[in-house]
Known about the structure:
- There is one protein chain.
- By secondary structure, the protein is an alpha+beta fold.
- It has two domains: 5-71, Orthogonal Bundle (434 Repressor (Amino-terminal Domain)), CATH 1.10.260.40; 99-197, PAS domain (Beta-Lactamase), CATH 3.30.450.
- The protein has helices spanning 9-20, 24-31, 35-42, 49-58, 63-68, 70-75, 90-97, 116-122, 131-135, 143-153; strands at 100-106, 111-114, 128-130, 160-164, 173-179, 188-197.
- Helix 2 packs across helix 3.
Amino acid sequence: xxxxxxxxxxxxxxxxxxxxxxxxxxxxxxxxxxxxxxxxxxxxxxxxxxxxxxxxxxxxxxxxxxxxxxxxxxxxxxxxxxxxxxxxxxxxxxxxxxxxxxxxxxxxxxxxxxxxxxxxxxxxxxxxxxxxxxxxxxxxxxxxxxxxxxxxxxxxxxxxxxxxxxxxxxxxxxxxxxxxxxxxxxxxxxxxxxxxxxxxxx
Length: 202
C-alpha cells in the first residue's frame, strides 16, 4: 500500500516550511545545498544524514520525526501520554520538558549523533561523535550489556530497553530505549536516554 501523503518526509518538510514561511531558496541557503536539491526532497527524493540533520536544526524539529514521522516517535515512547497537538517541533519540546536525550548510532560506520541532553550525559565534544566515545562513558561492568543491547536493537522492529549508568552521574541509573528505524537497510539504531530509574539491584 502506498504511503499516505501525511506520512511522507516530503509532506512533513512542506508543512514545516509553510509554518515558518520558508522558501526553497532560504532552506537551500541554510542547509548549504542548491534550491534544486530542496525541490527534489519536496518531490519525494532521498536526503542524506548530514543534510537531514542540518535541515532539522534549521527548521527546529527532531530529525527522526522529520525523516520517519509520528510512528517512529511513538515507537520510542517519547509521547508518554502527552497530547500530540501542534507542529513537528513538539517532539523536541516534549523531550526537553521530560529530560529525555536522543541518540542515533550507526554500527557499521561507528558514527553517533546526540542531542543536547545526550551530549551532556555522555560528555562528548559535540553532537557528531563516535560510538566508541559514547561507549567510554559507561561503567566497565555495563560494557557487555550495552554491546548486546545495541546489536539486538539494530535488528529489532520492537523497541528494546536497558538500564545503565554513565560516569558523569554514577549514583543514577538511566533507561535507554533503542529500535531499528523502519525501512533502513543499514545496522542503525535510534533511541532515547531518559531520567533516573530505580537502582537495578532493587
